[in-house]
Specification:
The structure holds two protein chains of two kinds. By secondary structure, chain A is of the alpha+beta class. Chain A has helices at about 90-105, 110-130, and strands at about 5-10, 15-20, 20-25, 30-35, 40-45, 45-55, 60-70, 75-85. Chain B is an alpha/beta fold. The two termini of chain B are about 25 Å apart. Chain B has two domains: about 1-20 and about 245-285, Helix Hairpins (Orthogonal Bundle), CATH 1.10.287; about 40-190 and about 205-245, Pyruvate Kinase, Chain: A, domain 1, CATH 3.40.1380.10. In chain B, α1 (about 1-60) packs antiparallel against α5 (about 210-285). Classes of the chains: A alpha+beta, B alpha/beta. β5 of chain A pairs parallel with β5 of chain B, so a sheet runs across the interface.
Chain lengths: ~130, ~290
């Protein structure tokens, strides 16, 4: 299969740069896959599981939260707010965050702003735990 | 002569104390610098990639349905100015403000200052300040950058200003840092040249679901990424500037102490000679 250049960057560094066969991630409207030869394209990323397929057929899973994906002249740039490879995800921490957020959301008398914050936290924890 | 000796001795002591402080500051700056440099090096590819991608999109964009992609609605500027929290960093803060003054000449502008020095400066000049909640640049984390970006986007959408620019210090190497400017919004500002001069756009971009929605979602993130990158660059520049300045100050103090020691010894010798002369003269008199 044809391959294309992919770069994955987050504020914590450039996490991946090289040729891949396919990249799948969740945009604000749903899952999408990019293959080689894609037209110029730009979308915003949502929260969800993502994976890339390397030229040798291995698949690397990751959690991807927020950011943008663009394909320009055959090169794909994926600039995420958070991108964690499956092996880098701290599951214990995510479980903890999930439990904490759930407990907070079950409490009464949480302000609207706090509710939003904890809901986002819960969502992030669930995305991390969902990668396997 | 004795009085002179005492004065010189006091002066040596005070210079020594100052030297101790400058040396300590130099050491602190260089140890912090290592960490800050790591952070900036990690962040730089993202920062550059982000800017380049948006630049490509902006120059190829033909769809102006999003407020971020349209021509500026107002001639008012908003500068995000990243300076330091403390002085004693050579020309770090002063150079940045000078550059800003040159850039903002004759423009109507508001600032979002980061760093205590920057807040102080704009307060003194009476420039309207958007918020002071990010006065301490050392405490700014990624989350704060997102908050700032959301705030800026909200103001931008409401038309309170038509342009957003970042003013920060670019780190070149340990010895050279230069204040820099980058236009952030609207996206048309990124392309520099007049849109009318551009040739026909060949690379059309597909937006999903549509350009307005994509821009609305990515612009706050893009702005947050840019601000975070600027903060990282500025922090490492500040520390490098401080280290260089403190190194120079320590060297100066050493030189001064050497000179003062010479003075002191000369004064001591003179007073001893005088004493002997007096004793000899007195003995002769008897």
């Amino acid at each position: 299969m044809n391959t294309f250049k992919l770069q994955i960057g987050t504020p914590d560094g450039l996490l991946f740069s090289g040729d891949v066969e396919r990249v799948v991630c969740r945009s604000i409207t749903g899952d999408l896959a990019i293959l080689a030869g894609h037209a110029n394209f730009c979308t915003a990323l949502g929260m969800g599981e993502a994976h890339v397929v390397l030229p040798d057929g291995t698949r690397r899973n990751a959690a991807c939260i927020g950011g943008m994906l663009s394909v320009m002249n055959g090169e794909c740039h994926l600039l995420a707010t958070t991108w964690e490879w499956q092996e880098d995800i701290d599951r214990a921490r995510a479980e903890e965050a999930k439990a904490r957020a759930e407990a907070k959301l079950n409490e009464t008398g949480v302000s609207e702003k706090e509710y939003q914050i904890f809901r986002a936290k819960l969502q992030r924890a669930l995305v991390r735990l969902g990668v396997h | 002569m004795a009085a002179n000796m005492k004065a010189v001795k006091l002066r040596i002591k005070s210079v020594q104390n100052t030297m101790q402080i400058t040396r300590a500051m130099e050491l602190v700056a260089s140890s912090k610098l290592r960490k800050a440099k790591e952070r900036a090096d990690n962040c730089r590819p993202y920062f550059e990639e982000l800017y380049r991608t948006l630049d490509t999109i902006a120059s190829g964009n033909t769809d102006f349905s999003s407020v971020y992609a349209r021509e500026a609605a107002s001639e008012r500027w908003c500068y995000v100015v990243v300076a330091g929290d403390r002085g004693l960093a050579g020309g770090y803060n002063a150079n940045l403000f000078k550059r800003l003054e040159a850039e903002a000449q004759g423009k109507d502008y508001t600032v979002l200052p980061l760093g205590k020095k920057s807040v102080e400066y704009f307060k003194r000049r009476g420039v309207p300040i958007l918020t002071e909640s990010f006065a301490e640049v050392a405490k700014v984390k990624v989350g704060d950058c997102f908050e700032m970006a959301r705030m800026l986007c909200k103001e931008f959408r409401e038309g309170n200003f038509g342009h957003i620019s970042l003013c920060y210090t670019q780190f070149h190497n340990m010895l050279s840092q230069a204040p820099d400017f980058i236009p952030a919004l609207p996206l048309m500002d990124l392309t520099w040249d007049d849109p009318k001069d551009r040739g026909p756009v060949r690379d059309l971009i597909l937006y999903e679901p549509d350009s307005a929605e994509v821009f609305d979602a990515i612009v706050p993130e893009y702005l947050a990424g840019l601000i975070y990158g600027a903060v990282c660059e500025s922090e490492v520049s500040e520390l490098a500037a401080r280290r260089t300045a403190m190194e120079a100050a320590t060297n100066n103090a050493e030189e001064m102490i050497e000179k003062l020691n010479l003075h002191y010894n000369r004064a001591r010798q003179a007073s001893i000679t005088q004493e002997i002369t007096e004793i000899v003269a007195g003995a002769e008199g008897v």
